[in-house]
Amino acid sequence: MKSLIKYSLILAFPGIGLAQVFNPQNKKVTEKFFPEFSQKITTPAFQKKKGFTKYEEMMPFLQSLENKHKNIMKLSFVGESQKGKKIPLVILNKTSAVEDKIKVWIQGGIHGNEPASTEGVLYMIQELLENPEYSELLDQLEIGIIPMANIDGYEVQERTAANGMDLNRDQTKLMVPESVYLKQAFSDFNAEVAVDFHEFHPFRADYLQMGKAGYTVPYDVMFLYSGNLNVPGSLRELTENTFVKNAEKFLGEHQLSAHDYFTTSKDDGYTVFNLGSINARASATSYALSNCVSSLIEVRGIDIGKTSFKRRVSTTFLIAVSYMQTAVKEKEKLRAVLKDAQQENKDVIIRSSRKPGKKELKFIDLSTNEMVTEEVSVRNALRSRPVLTRPMPTAYLILPSGKNMIEKLKTLGVKVAQTQQPEKLDVENYIVTKYKKASVKFEGTFGQTLSTENHPVTKDFPAGTYIIYTDQKNKGLIFETIEPEADNGFAAYGVLKAALGEELPVYRYMNSKLLSN
């Protein structure tokens, strides 16, 4: 069946809650499309009939593994959750003849209602340490692992942190304590490959408006990787055509299905499917902007309890293994791409638009329990085009009053210098020509939308002015946070305060001569 989807979500009775909108997964769907795996898994959630791993169960599990493998595993803590629970960091680093090991970062549980992410990461740690089949990976890799990023949310199986904020919408504004700890740990580790594990909801409201009785997503897993144009093209290509493709093939060998990640939104009452990521506020793009291969992995699982839980945990594990195997196999290419990406010198992409088009997607028709194909309208972030650009400056200058921005930049792994004496410099300023402040908070802040114009000026800068050079590894994060019009920048989230007609306390230094510091 092929048709152009033109649905609008209409809730006839406003009192109906989400739980009544979403359909549960019935046994017929599970048995036909997602049969449970049979292998033995001994992580904490599989030691009990109900519920998922609690923090108090995870910590003894990790401590036991560390005690048995002290020569490989080191357990430490990056900070505390808002409710005072220490956030564990596992480092796997086996002594071997390889001195320049590839550094791989693995994270799970940043959303507390996505249990296969944490459980899959725990299973991965156990298998890497105790299954000889993976000893070669430990010879070649140093692996940094956050198994349960959002402890408070995970304990009650809720998406957000204790203060109600989403840790994966906080990767640039860094307003939540856990976000700061996690990002600092990531920056300190200096990953070359980073994978963030999640689960997705297969029964979204828009899908349930399709067909006679609704559709559901037929894929075991979906891959979210960045189309952000400040991520160099060679790095985006390596991620998509090597790491993702290898993982999809590996999953297919284990009878697991995969697709690029998509979600839905509304456009004049029509349902549009959004492919890929460009937003620096979330890990897929935030990691990539720090110059590493990055993917956010969405396993099919939210709100279906322990249905096919071994299958979901195994999917998480297999993808982690595939990314690590590809990193080892493609070591020289990976290092070459990352080196070239750091040296790339092109315009700063401040805003971009997703490529619109049509695409055929598969679904499971809940009325027939059969696979169907629909042609849908898509906006493809993986094929974005630039809308607003500026030449890349030699450096950005921020006045001493911008210390809050500087602290966030440092947490993001950006190197910052300061002038030691007053200087008169030729720079470009930013004058706010359009300004709008949101009337409702988003993730704890009133957003700002603004446009600016640059003008050449000669300005006296005081001693202590911050210098952020753009010839550094994490320059993509510099552009995404400092440029005032950036959708996920400091101005957008109110970290950089603005007003119509004002000059912002941020400047573009275009001279190739380095400043004294």
UniProtKB/TrEMBL annotation:
Keywords for this protein: Coiled coil, Hydrolase, Metalloprotease, Protease, Signal, Zinc
Organism domain of life: Bacteria
Q: Does the keyword Zinc apply?
A: yes
Residue ranges of domain Peptidase M14 in the record: 51-327
Q: Which residues form a coiled coil?
A: 324-351
Cofactor annotation: Zn(2+)
Q: Name one Pfam family in it.
A: Peptidase_M14
- GO molecular-function terms, A-Z: metallocarboxypeptidase activity; zinc ion binding
Q: Where is the active site?
A: E298 (proton donor/acceptor)
Q: Name one GO biological process term.
A: proteolysis
- In the UniProt record, does the keyword Hydrolase occur? yes
GO cellular component term, pick one? extracellular space
Mind telling me which InterPro entries this protein's record contains? Answer: Peptidase_M14 (IPR000834)
**Residues annotated as signal peptide:** 1-19
Q: Identify the PANTHER family for this entry.
A: PROTEASE FAMILY M14 CARBOXYPEPTIDASE A,B (PTHR11705), SLL0236 PROTEIN (PTHR11705:SF143)
Q: Which family does it belong to?
A: Belongs to the peptidase M14 family.
The protein's name: Peptidase M14 domain-containing protein
